[in-house]
Design a protein that fits this description.
Chain lengths: 163, 574
């Protein structure tokens, strides 16, 4: 099963490599990885999506918790949560396809953010499933390039991942 | 307020931290630190002949004393030479602090002379690592390094120190930090009371219980408490290789150690048990054999300070995260206030165990007769008697390691010092050095073989410089015995590179360093040789003992089998 693990990490040089290294060292999967600073300059927030059965996920969270640079973590998939990913897609936009791209983007509530005579660049946010569907819909028209941020997530309601 | 250079801070910190001795090797990036060491006399520096030996010596000392071993090496090759020793300490959870010189900050990343990203290289084999970014951080970072190395599940910590951080001209305020706090690191001590109560309930009801304890009991200083608990309950106990000495091996309740080359009765008891109480052990593959066939009828209580060790390879029914000593003491007080164990069932259980024991009694190996080649097992037994069972024993890796573990009976913890997890050939001799320097009054014996000893024999020179009187027992079978055993069993005796055709004359080699060597080739020569060797505790003596080259280590678990599937000799199996 797919899990989204959010981690508060010491904003220290080398901290990220400890997390990434752990996954390869212990033969765990990383599907997506997303990392950025938080409102607290001493902390980064890292979100990783991974796949494994309960036993594997238990080992992943235990080993992550053992890393000295990991301050706190939560498996968001254990509760209600919001999951978002941002994607930028360059699509061929010539002739009739120009309208088709725009229409499809509208259906997905995506925005065209850059335009040339032959190319549309489309920005879309949503969960991973929505982005996958958009890629599928655009594929026949001609995708030139895809850039995805990887999943970021947060728990619904009052639940917080803070110190 | 005291102003010190980074280098002087390091020397001063080691003194304030109570470090008496460090092991190391100088080089460009570490020279400011070496100069600071030269100008003080609180911390003794032991100059090894290869950085790997520095880590093993620090490791040996740490295993014997329970205190962190300290290593100082230079950047690049100095640091990479230390890697095997760091990995050895990591696998066996040994507290160690490794200070590595590094090229100056402005050169980092430029492929400078003797530059290696040692923090990167060692990342998977350390508990944690630090890079010093400013000299003023040194006291706090070093305190954190020692704190992390020695608390929780211990392990090695690397501190990378760029040369400019130790420049003699830059001075900053030095205060010894008595305490440090790391917000993300709060090692557990006490276990969950409800879980402990549940475990004790199961223990009191158990019909066929076995204690299975590991290195966590030894490093956690919980041997006395464990012995008390085990004796109150009257249960059998087996330890891992790392857990040897955690319970006195001569005692009737001790089944010896378990696993691949563990005792017949220990492996049989584990297989038939209905309750396994694992404390400070990690269900390693050398213990469990095939996990899907592991102990089919047993419920498992697993006590460990590291939650990631629990249910990693074998699912625990009652997991307890806590320090061995604290959990055991809580178990003792619960046992005291509760009803008794199931005495009738236990009696039956002991009958089975005694019958397993007697099945193999006197059949473990065939001692040599006068005129025959010595058996390695009887050499270990003779050394055991010669040292009254009280020596510190280190080993290298291979058949001699297993024989030492099987036939030297340890009554105390911290006495059997072996590379259990990583299986590092070359570990034994430098580890013995580290132990002997810390315990000069005691006999320190290193069991080794020609293969292992030749990996670290340059340390004879260190022993000469610092007058380190260890006893080296070379069980000389002219081959890489354990490799050859596997080739006999699995490769139709095709001995690919397990035979060493050009061994040196060890006696001459040892004498070249000015030490005593005794060559033993016959049964009759053994007793007088041992008497001579152990006459003076502080004299280095090398015993080159020729043993039967065809001997195998048994029992030996059958690959992919259960605990009870064992070869018992070249012709018998369970």
């Amino acid at each position: 099963m797919r899990h989204i693990i959010s981690i508060l990490l010491e904003n220290e040089p080398g901290a990220l490599s400890r997390v990434v290294g752990l996954f390869s060292q212990r033969n765990f999967n990383i599907e997506t990885l997303n990392v950025a600073p938080t409102e607290d300059p001493s902390l980064s927030r890292l979100t990783v999506t991974t796949v494994g059965d309960d036993r594997v996920i238990e080992q992943i969270t235990k080993h992550l918790n053992k890393l000295i640079d990991v301050v706190k973590l939560v498996d968001l998939t254990e509760g209600n949560h919001i999951e978002r990913e941002l994607m930028l897609v360059k699509v061929k936009a010539l002739g009739a396809a120009r309208d088709e791209v725009k229409r499809t983007a509208d259906i997905f509530r995506a925005q065209v953010v850059d335009v040339t005579p032959s190319v549309y660049t489309v920005q879309i946010t949503g969960d991973a499933g929505k982005l996958d569907a958009f890629v599928q819909a655009m594929a026949p028209i001609g995708i030139l390039e895809v850039a995805r941020t990887g999943v970021s997530g947060i728990a619904r309601g009052d639940k917080l991942l803070t110190l | 307020m005291e102003l010190l250079s980074g280098a002087d801070m390091i020397a001063r910190f080691l003194k304030d931290e109570g470090v008496e001795r460090i092991y190391g090797y100088p080089g460009g990036a570490a020279l400011h630190i070496y100069d600071a060491l030269f100008r003080q006399d609180s911390v003794q520096h032991i100059l090894v002949r290869h950085e790997q030996a520095a880590t093993h010596a620090a490791d040996g000392y740490a295993r014997a004393s329970g205190k962190p071993g300290v290593v100082l090496v230079t950047s690049g090759p100095g640091a990479t030479n230390a890697v095997t020793g760091i990995a050895t300490a990591y696998m066996d959870s040994i507290p160690m602090v490794v200070l590595c010189g590094q090229v100056a900050s402005h050169l980092i990343g430029e492929d400078a002379f003797q530059e290696t990203d040692i923090v990167g290289v060692t990342r998977p084999i350390v508990k944690h690592s630090f890079s010093i970014r400013h000299p003023s951080q040194i006291p706090e970072v070093l305190k954190k390094a020692f704190y992390l190395a020695a608390t929780g599940r211990p392990g090695p910590v690397v501190v990378d120190i760029p040369k400019d951080m130790t420049a003699p001209t830059e001075r900053y305020e030095y205060v010894y930090p008595k305490k440090v706090k790391i917000r993300s690191y709060n090692p557990v001590t006490r276990g969950h009371s409800g879980q402990i109560r549940k475990a004790v309930d199961m223990m009191l009801k158990a019909r066929r219980p076995v204690f299975y304890t590991g290195g966590g009991v030894v490093t956690g200083g919980a041997s006395e408490a464990l012995t008390d608990l085990v004796q109150r309950l009257g249960f059998p106990i087996t330890t891992t290789l790392m857990g040897i000495g955690g319970y006195p091996q001569g005692d009737r309740q001790s089944l010896g150690w378990l696993g691949m080359h563990g005792s017949y009765e220990a492996n049989m008891a584990m297989h038939h048990a209905d309750l396994i109480v694992a404390i400070g052990a990690r269900f390693d593959d050398r213990v469990t054999n095939n996990t899907s066939k592991f102990c089919p009828t047993a419920k498992i209580v697993h006590v460990d300070i590291d939650p990631s060790s629990i249910s990693k390879t074998v699912r625990a029914d009652v997991p307890i995260v806590g320090a061995a000593g604290s959990v055991i003491n809580e178990m003792i007080s619960l046992v005291q206030e509760r009803e008794a164990t199931n005495a009738e069932a236990l009696g039956e259980w002991w009958k089975s165990i005694e019958s397993w024991r007697s099945e193999r009694e006197g059949k473990l190996y065939e001692p040599s007769k006068p005129g025959e080649a010595l058996k390695p097992q009887e050499v270990v037994e003779a050394v055991y008697r010669a040292t009254r069972g009280e020596a510190f024993v280190t080993t290298d890796v291979g058949q001699h390691q297993m024989f030492a573990a099987q036939y030297y009976k340890f009554a105390k913890p911290n006495r059997f010092i072996t590379s259990g997890g990583l299986g590092t050939m070359g570990f034994g001799f430098p580890a013995a050095m580290g132990v002997k320097l810390g315990y000069p009054q005691d006999d320190v014996v290193c069991f080794t073989g020609e293969g292992s000893f030749q990996m670290m024999m340059q340390e004879l020179s260190t022993c000469k410089q610092f007058d380190v009187g260890v006893k080296i027992v070379n069980l000389n079978n002219g081959s890489l015995g354990m490799v050859r055993q596997w080739q006999d069993l699995n490769y139709k005796s095709r001995h690919a590179h397990s035979y060493m055709e050009s061994l040196p004359d060890f006696a001459k080699l040892i004498e070249a360093y000015g030490f005593t060597a005794i060559t033993v080739k016959t049964h009759e020569e053994l007793a007088p040789a041992l008497e001579r060797a152990f006459a003076d505790t502080n004299e280095l003596v090398f015993l080159d003992i020729y043993v039967d080259p065809f001997e195998h280590v048994y029992p030996m678990q059958v690959p992919l089998g259960s605990m009870r599937d064992m070869l018992l000799s070249k012709t018998e199996r369970t």
